[in-house]
Amino acid sequence: MERSRFDLGLELLSKIDGEAGHNVINSLQDICPDLAKYTIEFPFGDIYARSALDLKSREIAAVAALTALGNCAPQLKVHLNAALNVGCSEDEVKEVILQMAVYAGFPAALNGMFAFKEVLAERSAA
Fold first, then answer.
1. Of 64, 65, 81, 100, which is the most buried if we count CB atoms within 10 A?
2. CA-to-CA distance for 40 and 36, rounded, in angstroms?
């Protein structure tokens, strides 16, 4: 029997984002449970489940995009944790953020690096 988009998405959300991902989903339940469901089904059940890229490559892309956007600190922190969860080294993540200075500018790279610094501090305190 084929698994539903939701079930597959929830499994991948747990694997990639762990507790941080579930916190995002849970925080939507009282205001818009549909958005929580769509967040599980589309990004995780449809996109992350595709086989052409591994999870590490997908998280590198997510970190780069969110760093370049420059206005997504909460989502960037979730994906910085996710990148580490799926096998990126600290140095690899730093290089991705540094690379964004070329394409998104120094403010975006600085904000990304400071977000990463916070994530590393939170992880070492846990």
1. 100
2. 6
